């Protein structure tokens, strides 16, 4: 029987959340700290623990069928590869930054200057688009130190909380792109393995949808039912059940995480009581 080969970062920023999401879609794999390959116990799947930066080439060559990878790495090294699902973790930006004292306020102001980066293709793409000429210094890590040691006038690197920029006396002047972990596939995937990745994708969608929503249960006097039902759309429509106490009902529904507190305020203002909120593991649509 054919097995799906999926790449996951061996160690680093993506590893733990990648393993967590595989677990949430019901796939149990041994922790790969000391192994480079592991088989899932309950799905025809092998996990390859690889460097994030090496994964685009493995996908292109068909060594692996799919991968959980930082979108920024795909943009840098794998523009030809297909993203099939955005996974919502390891969110970050790839930005241009300069010393706080610099007069530069955008990428344009770096015309003729030196930019240190680990993402030369990404920077070049933007420089070409804006018709700017700059000298790139390609370094693999600790990029933020480059202006302080006189190596560059600006940098292009990952920004998340902004604390590395702050600690190195830099200011962000331009966001080139936003990134998150994604599931990407190989152009060489076989038909059998495509069917397996379709299954994985279906499960991922259910988990991601569940994370976006919360399950709520609340008690409502029957004369307020209509107003409350209007506030709560639910998946189709809310479930309404009679309570043992006459004149009251229990309502069950699903609320999007982003609207959550506003909806709760409205429910309370319209007479809802005993509101319970639960996380949702999966929403199978
Ligand atoms: N500070 C951060 N906050 C959020 N996400 C980040 C941060 N730094 C990196 N990432 C994301 O996580 C991915 C992996 O980053 P990490 O630093 O672990 O490894 P890497 O040096 O890109 O890869 P590797 O060493 O495995 O080739 C990045 O490509 C990016 O998408
Ligand atoms: O805005 P912040 O929250 O400070 O995050 C940004 C920093 O995080 C990443 O480095 P990481 O810690 O992964 O170290 P690395 O350079 O060894 O990959 C990235 O290269 C930045 O330096
Ligand atoms: Mg890093």
From TrEMBL:
Keywords: Amino-acid biosynthesis, ATP-binding, Cytoplasm, Glycosyltransferase, Histidine biosynthesis, Magnesium, Metal-binding, Nucleotide-binding, Transferase. It is found in: Cytoplasm. The gene is hisG. Its main location: cytoplasm. Catalyzes the condensation of ATP and 5-phosphoribose 1-diphosphate to form N'-(5'-phosphoribosyl)-ATP (PR-ATP). Has a crucial role in the pathway because the rate of histidine biosynthesis seems to be controlled primarily by regulation of HisG enzymatic activity. NCBIfam families: hisG, HisG_C-term. GO terms for molecular function: ATP phosphoribosyltransferase activity. Gene3D superfamilies: 3.30.70.120, Periplasmic binding protein-like II (3.40.190.10). Pathway: Amino-acid biosynthesis; L-histidine biosynthesis; L-histidine from 5-phospho-alpha-D-ribose 1-diphosphate: step 1/9. This is ATP phosphoribosyltransferase. It catalyses: 1-(5-phospho-beta-D-ribosyl)-ATP + diphosphate = 5-phospho-alpha-D-ribose 1-diphosphate + ATP. It is an enzyme of class 2 (transferase). Residues 211-282 form the Histidine biosynthesis HisG C-terminal domain. Residues 51-205 form the ATP phosphoribosyltransferase catalytic domain. It comes from Winogradskyella pulchriflava.
